[in-house]
Design brief:
The structure holds 2 protein chains of 2 kinds. By secondary structure, chain A is mainly β. Helix content of chain A is 0%, strand content 53%. In chain A, the strands form 2 sheets. In chain A, strands 2, 4, 5, 9, 10 and 11 form a 6-stranded mixed sheet that branches. Chain A has a 5-stranded antiparallel sheet with strand order 1-3-8-7-6, with no helix packed on it. Chain B contains no helices and 11 strands. In chain B, strands 2, 4, 5, 6, 9, 10 and 11 form a 7-stranded mixed sheet that branches. In chain B, 0% of the residues lie in helices and 50% in strands. By secondary structure, chain B is mainly β. Chain B has strands at residues 5-7, 10-13, 19-24, 31-37, 44-50, 53-57, 64-68, 74-78, 87-94, 103-104, 108-112. The model of chain B has no long low-confidence stretch (mean pLDDT 93). Classes of the chains: A mainly beta, B mainly beta.
Chain lengths: 110, 113
């Protein structure tokens, strides 16, 4: 079983739409959670950390559900510039490893 | 300030050869991690080094090795290259310990023919 699982999509949404991504993780001892964004043929860049209480950064909201072992990312009022692959990342306390999901592809259509 | 730098940018090798990839972390960062990203997949963790010691190792064969130097730069070595080693190799640095946010370099694209 994979440590982190994501729906690869693709998600094709019109400008202004709201879109949500979910990600599940298998290790209940996981400590830290992140969403990264990766543009085509570029390196991943941190979008936001995910805190237990949930957190919001402008149009982006991240949630963590430890009981069900999933994290989510909500993007409101989608912009063309949001088109990218969104990677869910989980860090466990065993072996100091960061586990990445396969990524969810988002295309925002004019 | 300069970000994470990696060299070379692109590399073409043949099966059986070995390769050395290099990474310089952000100034002041003491931890470096290496990842392999195959097309269409997320990055897969290979190694993490902190203060010149190996702190984490992913599920990769012994053909993969790495080290970190006193200036915190790092090298990833891959021996006996296989076609399946073709990938983007990413280096990431963090200031201190293993649960900090990671800052990625642009990667080295390795093609094995």
């Amino acid at each position: 079983r994979k440590e982190v699982e994501q729906d690869p999509g693709p998600f094709n949404v019109p400008e202004g739409a709201t879109v949500a991504f979910n990600c599940t993780y298998s290790n209940s001892a996981s400590q830290s959670f992140f969403w990264y964004r990766q543009d085509c043929r570029k390196e991943p860049k941190l979008l936001m950390s995910v805190y237990s209480s949930g957190n919001e950064d402008g149009r982006f909201t991240a949630q963590l559900n430890r009981a069900s072992q999933y994290i989510s990312l909500l993007i409101r009022d989608s912009k063309l510039s949001d088109s990218a692959t969104y990677l869910c990342v989980v860090n466990t306390n065993t072996g100091n490893q960061f586990y990445f999901g396969t990524g969810t592809s988002l295309t925002v259509i004019p | 300030d300069a970000g994470v730098t990696q060299s070379p940018t692109h590399l073409i090798k043949t099966r059986g050869q070995h390769v050395t990839l290099r990474c310089s972390p952000i100034s002041g960062h003491k931890s470096v991690s290496w990842y392999q990203q195959v097309l269409g997949q997320g990055p897969q963790f290979i190694f993490q080094y902190y203060e010149k010691e190996e702190r984490g190792r992913g599920n990769f064969p012994d053909r993969f090795s790495a080290r970190q130097f006193p200036n915190y730069s790092s090298e990833l070595n891959v021996n006996a290259l296989l076609l399946g080693d073709s990938a983007l190799y990413l280096c990431a640095s963090t200031p201190r310990n293993w649960d900090d946010e990671q800052y990625f370099g642009p990667g080295t694209r390795l093609t094995v023919t």
